[in-house]
């Protein structure tokens, strides 16, 4: 069983898995990571839907009712304080993924950086 926060899921696991799933893993590790990925995608749907609802709720809208985006690609907000408060609450929610941690043999796995390995610790067992 794996327990992580939504913010860890969005800012660490999602980009990390996008990169790591492209690497060549031993078949058992690949299978375990694929199962974890499927579960994370299911859990992630709720998080991203709620995040989008907050953006719609607090986003500044143009004359056509569309959310306004700054030149830097960020959403313009009507009420930054309340958006941040609710968004932080959403990010701090812990999610539990009902799959065992992936067993990873460090001697036979692909080359990954120390930083990637540190980020993977919540979801893997190393040997």
Structure notes:
With 127 residues, the protein is mainly α. The protein has one domain. It has 4 helices and 4 strands. It has helices at residues 6-20, 27-58, 80-92, 114-120; strands at residues 2-5, 94-97, 102-104, 124-126. The protein is elongated, with a radius of gyration of 18 Å. It starts with a strand and ends with a strand. The relative contact order is 0.23.
Q: What is the terminal-to-terminal distance?
A: 18 Å
Helix and strand element order:
EHHHEEHE
Helix content: 40-55%
Per DSSP, the total helix count is 4
- Average of per-residue pLDDT values: 85
Low-pLDDT sequence parts: none
SSE arrangement:
Blueprint: E1 2-5, H1 6-20, H2 27-58, H3 80-92, E2 94-97, E3 102-104, H4 114-120, E4 124-126
Parallel strand pairs: 3-4
Antiparallel strand pairs: 1-2
Helix pairs in contact: 1-2, 2-3
């Amino acid at each position: 069983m794996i327990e992580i926060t939504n913010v860890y899921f969005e800012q660490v696991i999602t980009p990390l898995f996008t990169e790591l799933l492209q690497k060549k893993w031993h078949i058992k590790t690949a299978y375990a990571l694929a199962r974890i990925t499927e579960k994370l995608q299911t859990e992630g749907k709720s998080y991203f839907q709620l995040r989008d609802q907050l953006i719609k709720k607090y986003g500044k809208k143009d004359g056509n009712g569309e959310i306004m985006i700054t030149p830097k690609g960020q959403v313009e907000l009507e009420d930054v304080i309340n958006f941040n408060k609710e968004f932080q609450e959403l990010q701090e929610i812990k999610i539990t993924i009902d799959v065992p941690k992936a067993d990873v043999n460090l001697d036979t796995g692909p080359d990954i950086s120390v930083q990637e390995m540190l980020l993977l610790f919540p979801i893997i067992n190393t040997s």
